[in-house]
Amino acid sequence: MADTFDYVIVGAGSAGCILANRLSADGKYSVCILEAGPPDRNIYIHIPAGFIKNLSNPNINWMYQAESGPHINGRKMPVPRGKTLGGSSSINGMIYNRGQRMDYDQWAQMGNRGWGYADVLPYFKRCESRVGGEGDDTYRGRDGGMTVETIPYQHPLCDAFIKGAAEVGIPHNPDYNGAKQEGISYVQRTVRSRRRVSTARAYLHPAKSRSNLTVITNAFATKILLEGKKAVGIAYSKGGKGGAAAEVRANKEVILSGGVINSPQLLQLSGIGPAGLLEELGIEVKHQLAGVGENLRDHYAPRFVVRVKNAETLNERARGLRKTWEIAKYLAGGKSIVNLNPSLVYGFWHSDPATKSNDLQFIFTPASYDEGKHGQLADWPGFTIAAWQHRPESSGYVRAKSADPFQKPAIQPNYLAHETDQRAVVAAMRLARSLIHTQAMAPYFDGEEMPGEAIQTDDELLDAARRIGATTYHPMGTCRMSPTSDATAVVDDQLRVHGMQSLRVVDASVMPRMMSANLAAGTMMIAEKASDIILGKQALEPIIVPE
Q: What is the pTM of this model?
């Protein structure tokens, strides 16, 4: 006999952990959450600098890889996704970045009622606990689950970079999650007391003692159980491939929170998706829904790497005895590079000064990395700038390759396929180079290593972007929220799968358009809002703020 609960959630990730907490909070409903990975006990999850280790650990990372990119010289990009309690919030770079007002207003303009900026702002506030005095409390929350701090670290190169940005017209903005995004500042991140704050730490662990909440780890979901068009449960394998088969049943709803890769794949494996694809794979079509797995988008960023003189960088402090000393300082509670995330400074600006569309983002860190060696510091001092387009037009897909749930799907982001994206990436590179060559940075500049000063024309810059650009780990959109008039729609504005009963999707895959941001904050907001929708609660009062 299968265990039965009111709600069954697939995926204890950035969204799933929040849902598990909120749906079980009043004790009325029984909730089961299934996680394919193990508990979040790995030490590198909790140490900020452990981010680099998490990227290559198959025990807590799905280690997906995209298909060859036709517009990036046939290269294949890694697609890391969290596979542990907390999901990607347990392995990401910890950046907290909400995006712009226009992102959410556009969602609403597409027909998604209740998803405009005024509607989602109270849920952003409910989710966060902003530390420190920066920020207007009209926009910021102070008592939510996710601690958000400005990184407590200052570096001479970072200070010079921020000063240099002012030379090219980019102002200092102490709170890019406040009234406006444009400007530059040290990053905001989800860290408390020198430890990562994942949604597992903030939401799931405090709720695990509830008698009405069941958390099952190492539970690999293989199929949605259907009775006609109604979802009634989940089939899963205990321990993954080769494990014992099991089922859980849902009295009320099945909620997919597996993320932008796993949610569409599970729908397809269950017979919900594009009929042609399912028939080709020998999967019985239970419900034709053409958009499942389509609309995949991601941020794509070329890097500039510069040699440094007259300043110490993180490279020197991360080698030999100095590395040991940094670890010792961290353990003793002192200032240490072990308490750093990958990027220290964030900036937001325009590819076209005339339109001022705030369509570019850039990051800075006082460290250099070896080309072609993911996350590995170089043996010479340097700094790195990466810049990218906020809202790419290029889109791709996630498609099951077979009826075998353990075979990884085809992932194709189609980076730089659209001409608009090509123009934007060249503008982003020119902005990055202008930031390298400010007066404030001149004392530290000792030569451009990558892509190199010889690269100057638009065609040369675009060619370099195709050769050296990389993912920023922000895939979204594969279960798009949109009315049925949109051929790529998968869920409605209540996050219900179109044409199905008792089945919702709550994760970054429902985002209808890319945000001008990293996706963690937006995903957590979606889960907070979804919990009220699912429980039938009145939505939080919209917060109307002046433009």
A: 0.97
